[in-house]
Amino acid sequence: MQVIEKFLKENEPRFVRELSEYLRFPSVSAQPKHRSDLTACAGWIEKHCRQLGLQTRLWSTPGNPILVAKTPRVAGARKPHFLVYGHYDVQPAEPFELWKSPPFEARIEGRSLFARGATDNKGQHFAHLKAVEAYRACGVELPCDLTFLIEGEEEVGSNHLAAFVKKHRAELRCDGVVISDNSLPSLKHPALTYALRGIVALEIRLDGPARDLHSGLFGGAVDNPAMALCQLLGKLRDARGRVAIPGFYYDVRPLSTYERRQMARLPYDERKFKKLLGVPELFGEHGFTANERRSARPTCEINGLTSGYQGDGSKTIVPSWASAKLTFRIVPNQKPEKIRELIEKQLRKLCPPTVRLTIEAGHGGDPYFVSPDGAQAQAALRALKSAFGHAPVLLREGGSIPVVNDLKKILGVDALMLGLALPDDNPHSPNEKISLDAFAKGMRMSAHLWQELANITRK
Ligand code: BES
Ligand code: MN
Question: 322 — phi, psi (to 5°)?
Answer without folding.
Answer: -150, 145
